[in-house]
User: Fold this.
Amino acid sequence: MSIKRNGCEGCSEITCTSTKEVLSKDIAKNVITAYDRVQARGMSACLFGSGGTCCRNCNMGPCQIIEGVDDLIGICGATADTVAARNFARTIASGTSAHTDHAREMVKGFIETAKGETPHEIKDEVKLHMLAEVFGVETEGKDKNEIALEIGKMALNDFGKQDDEPVTMVKRAPAKRQEIWKKYNIAPRGVDREVVEMMHRTHMGVDQDYRNLMLQGARCALADGWGSSMLSTELTDIMFGTPVPRRAIVDLGVLKEDQVNVTVHGHEPLLAEALCLAAQEPDMLELAKKAGAKGINLAGVCCTGNEILMRRGIPVAAGFIQQEMAIATGAVEAMVVDVQCIMQSVAEVAKSFHTDVITTNYRAKMPGAVHIQFEEEEALQSAKEILTHAIKNYKKRGDCFIPTENKLDVVVGFSHETINYMLGGRFRSSYRPLNDNIINGRIRGVAAIVGCDNYKLPDDRHEIIARELIKNDVLVLATGCAATALGRVGLLRPEAAREAGPGLAEICETVGMPPVLHCGSCVDNSRLLIAATEMVREGGLGEDISELPLAGTAPLWMSEKAVAIGQYFVSSGAYVCFQNLPTSGSKVFTKHLFEEMEEMYGGRWDVAEDPLELAKQMIAHIDKKRAALGIDKKRERVLFDMEMRRDLGTGSGIGDVGCHGQQHLS
Ligand code: NFS
Ligand code: SF4
Assistant:
């Protein structure tokens, strides 16, 4: 490799103190990171590629197309709008397939659990019964495993079914939303079918009308959000417990000098949960002691990290952009990976250290890694085998550097049920108080900051956007690597309420919650769909998601999954603003995303390169929705007298925070 590193020269875009510290140390001097590759490559991205008008869907191409130039259409005659739409739709299909393949594994694991064939159990029976109702499963006289087995089988059917009926969860959406989906014939059918149909329609010579292509794009994305992702979230909650608020730590500093450090990187919680169980087994701890370590320290990376952080309080070492840095500390015995968002470079970085990258899934192997197949039916045994391998490495550890100065406490675990519980209190857990506080203007609206980190842009963008939103009384819900990034800068702490506007601060202080709520991994964006639906159902904010003062962003998106998520939010009625989209090469298609979709779905795409501008656009949308609901005037009242405080504390139930999560908070 000819790219060189020079201390921290290549880190001009890094603001994370821990990352900079690690990269400035001698032990990391040979580590080439993605930052270095971005620098070496410069910003000369291909305009056709980034604008979405490069087509290589057949072997007459590749064709690079310029909109409005007659000679520069595809060899087959495809125009810029068709090609941009096809590429965008394929991105959605790819993102959907990733969530879907993950979800299928979870459903299969759920079925095995119901049969007693895994070390896991059906933990959340309340949610099990709620889901039984959604699936129409009779519960009378059946034990929890029987109910789970029936739900599991029906859920599995949602992936592969061939009839034209929508997937089960669609019926959870507000009635008005379901009508819109019916009108455009985009209620998702079998999830796999929507992906296959999308791939078919984008094949050379099939669907060549961008509007028609994007009807399937919307349907495919909805199959992700209301189909596979929602199934994954709900069944994972039932198996491993619905998250409740708890304190934890997010930083590279969670690695421990005197323990065997195992980072779990990827997406499927079945592996991570099994590792959590195995790491507590006496024989494993004994083995670690024999190797001279005080224990086994598990730490998460990326979305797997978010899953075990939310449910077990297991710390997150790194988000997507820090995966190489975790190894560069020299303190990691093994990075155990499964699927998605694992950069091939981790195996290269690991070569400079004693670290082994252990792949565990037959679908995802990597040169330079050790493969130990994780078998769900023998989950504990598999996990032990992986840990044994890691423990053996402990003795080989050389110099290491763990940054310890920047470890920040975070409060995580805001499932849609806990948001409801925290705000509503023990006796009347509901979204009423949230709706009331939006109506009275203490909370201006709700924003979702989701998605990835991206080496191409400065890493403080989530923070800039979140600070601007909370300053303007917008409650922020965060998932994925965006949530991890916001945790690193202290915004997931109740103390961050000080930075919020007066209305939001008042509520956060009364309830003891942060102004930015960590709602989980990327598949857990489906929680936000349910939260939005509950807000509609509660009343007072219109009859559909599109009427809510709500906006979403994935400002540093890099993965195709983020585009699928963006599209299912748009098709569900939300305003979604990214920092760029791969469609700029076609004004016609971009207009479809930015304007026509709003007419159809009430939600739309938007872009804003500057993070402050992006936040302002989200706020402008929220204000537009407030005005349409006729609640814009109420916001003029921002100062609270004692009576209003009392009202906030008891009248609405917000002060009654004796929820099961509260004990973790104090
Ligand atoms: Ni989401 Fe999770 Fe992170 Fe982006 Fe990747 S880990 S599923 S895709 S990078 S947020
Ligand atoms: Fe070119 Fe058309 Fe083939 Fe695409 S499908 S590569 S535009 S000829």
Summary: Residues 433 and 651 are 9 Å apart (CA to CA). The first strand starts at residue 54 and ends at 55.
